[in-house]
Amino acid sequence: MPAVIETDVKKMQKCIDLCNRCMQVCEECLTSCLKEPDAQARMKCIQTLRDCADICSLAAQFMARGSAFAKQICGLCAEICEACATECDMFQDNHCKQCADICRQCAQECRNMVNM
Amino acid sequence: MPAVIETDVKKMQKCIDLCNRCMQVCEECLTSCLKEPDAQARMKCIQTLRDCADICSLAAQFMARGSAFAKQICGLCAEICEACATECDMFQDNHCKQCADICRQCAQECRNMVNM
Amino acid sequence: MPAVIETDVKKMQKCIDLCNRCMQVCEECLTSCLKEPDAQARMKCIQTLRDCADICSLAAQFMARGSAFAKQICGLCAEICEACATECDMFQDNHCKQCADICRQCAQECRNMVNM
Amino acid sequence: MPAVIETDVKKMQKCIDLCNRCMQVCEECLTSCLKEPDAQARMKCIQTLRDCADICSLAAQFMARGSAFAKQICGLCAEICEACATECDMFQDNHCKQCADICRQCAQECRNMVNM
């Protein structure tokens, strides 16, 4: 059924785009967190941002290549994105608020990939 | 001068977006090349696509984090993108033609970053 | 109990070392497969080698940084290593035989990490 | 001349091993820096450690696959390793001292690769 296939391609493209966006926002947020006066209190947040940027980047690559493991890496990516959103939600600055929002959107798209 | 700064931010965003796009197109083209009946004749093309996808991915991450080495990695990325375009130009299928085109655009934006 | 902690550190170091080794052997095997006269018949093997090299590389990085998600990425790494060993076992050349062997060792160490 | 070839293979293996080692030590040092009471003063050090771990990881992958761009990425890797050593030298703790030492060794081996 071509209609279904087209839908799947669009779903995957949406997920790739969000993984790329989430990678960028996590990298930006990490750099911003390092500059905050309470950088030391953000240790766990910074560590989670690092993991999240890296797994989003590799998930986008796996999807782009049509990997047989795209769903599995998206499952792990969703889990790390959720953890990252939880960490970022603990801080009041704009970069953390925006990052938490994008992480949640990315987690949702990754779960959609898993269930495709 | 805020106007200049805004221009630089936009230039870098354009470069990040093209690196992400080039990563995706190279991964897709690599997978398509492996499925072609003349896969063995595409050895050098496939190897260059692999390098190009990986360096584009890391260049996007370096730019996103505001790395002090963003220009240097963009310089290397431009070089690999040009080589990849040259390899892809040797084949007549649509995925190679499209990939060569995106690689050249990405190389140009990476050079713009280097000269920023 | 320091003895237990030391054991865990040693286990993780063994797993990092095997992930690095497996990354290298998969990259070498992929390049060798591209040069074989039956490269086209190795499509699935080459694609799995690509995924395996990348996940081994990121798993080593997650373990090195003491990531909260080290066990999860090792779980996925074990799964991809096993799939890669199965693919490589289908070919008779030395690089595939050696790669299958290292992939199985790496899968085992990754499972040890998961159960730590 | 097989003797020369063997020497080159050994040189590259030494460089791959040091890149893997440097990736690990940088990741460990970054995590340790985040836990230090003066984490905020280490911002530039942490950012350089992040870049260094990532470029070492990709340089090892490029060498392992016999990339045509192995020398170029090793050239950039040497530059980032030197910068990382300089940053780490500013701090007195053992993890920074050890990291600076490994970064310098890795930079030297990467330069050897460039001149091979």
UniProtKB/TrEMBL annotation, chains A, B, C, D:
Identify the Pfam families for this entry. Answer: Csp (PF03860)
Give the residues annotated as coiled coil: none
Q: Which CDD domains match?
A: DUF326
Protein name per UniProt: Ferredoxin
* Species this protein is from: Dethiobacter alkaliphilus AHT 1
Looking up InterPro entries in the UniProt record yields: Csp_YhjQ (IPR005560), YHJQ-like (IPR044543)
Cite the Gene3D superfamilies for this sequence.
1.20.1270.360
